[in-house]
C-alpha cells in the first residue's frame, strides 16, 4: 500500500466486479441503441475505459473537462468547462461517465446542458457517490459504490494531480493535505 494512504476503501477486485455488473446492466438497458459515452476528464478515465470494455454493444467515446475543484479538497461550487465534447449530442443517447458525485453541483449543470443541446437521452454513470455531501439532487442511473465522507484517491481520482494510477481506491492520510 502507498505510504500516503490511510486505508484501502475498495480493492482492485471489488472495483472490477462492480464495473462488470454495471456494464452488464448498461448492455441490457441500451440494447439496440448506440451509446455516446462522455467521460469527465480526468478522474473518470480509468472507470471509463474499464466500463467501456464491459459494455457489449456499439459505443462512441468522447470526453469533456469540467470541474468545480481546484487543488483543494472542497468544492468551490463554480463549474468551469475547460474542454468541451467533440461530438454534437443532438439525437444521441448520452451516457455521462463520472468518477465521483460529491455535492452534485457539477452534474446539476451538465445534465440539463446536454439535454438543451438536443440529446435524445442523458443518463449518468458514476463509480462513487458521497450521499452525505449532496447539496443538489442529481438522478444517478448507474452507481458503483456509496462511500462515506472521506477524501479518496486512486483508480483515476487524484489529490493535487497525484495518486491517479493507484489500482485501488484509498482514503488519503489527513497529514498529506493539511501540510
Ligand atoms: P461535485 O461536488 O460537483 O464534484 O459533485 C464532483 C467532483 O469533485 C471531485 N471530488 C473528488 N476527487 N477525491 C477526489 O479525488 C474525492 O474524494 C473527491 N470528492 C469530490 C471530483 O473531481 C469529482 O469529479
Ligand atoms: Mg472529476
From TrEMBL:
UniProt subcellular location: Cytoplasm
Species in which this protein is naturally found: Megasphaera elsdenii CAG:570
Entry keyword set: Cytoplasm, Glycosyltransferase, Magnesium, Metal-binding, Nucleotide-binding, Purine salvage, Transferase
Associated pathway: Purine metabolism; GMP biosynthesis via salvage pathway; GMP from guanine: step 1/1; Purine metabolism; IMP biosynthesis via salvage pathway; IMP from hypoxanthine: step 1/1
Keyword Kinase: no
Swiss-Prot/TrEMBL catalytic activity: GMP + diphosphate = guanine + 5-phospho-alpha-D-ribose 1-diphosphate; IMP + diphosphate = hypoxanthine + 5-phospho-alpha-D-ribose 1-diphosphate
Stored InterPro entries: HGPRT (IPR050408), Hxn_phspho_trans (IPR005904), PRTase-like (IPR029057), PRTase_dom (IPR000836)
Top-level lineage group: Bacteria
Pfam families found in the cross-reference section: Pribosyltran
Family listed: Belongs to the purine/pyrimidine phosphoribosyltransferase family.
Cofactors, names only: Mg(2+)
GO molecular function annotation: guanine phosphoribosyltransferase activity; hypoxanthine phosphoribosyltransferase activity; magnesium ion binding; nucleotide binding
Protein name, UniProt field: Hypoxanthine phosphoribosyltransferase
EC annotation from Swiss-Prot or TrEMBL: 2.4.2.8
Cellular component terms per the entry's GO annotation: cytosol
GO biological process, one term: GMP salvage
Major localization class: cytoplasm
Positions of the Phosphoribosyltransferase domain: 9-159
Function: Purine salvage pathway enzyme that catalyzes the transfer of the ribosyl-5-phosphate group from 5-phospho-alpha-D-ribose 1-diphosphate (PRPP) to the N9 position of the 6-oxopurines hypoxanthine and guanine to form the corresponding ribonucleotides IMP (inosine 5'-monophosphate) and GMP (guanosine 5'-monophosphate), with the release of PPi.
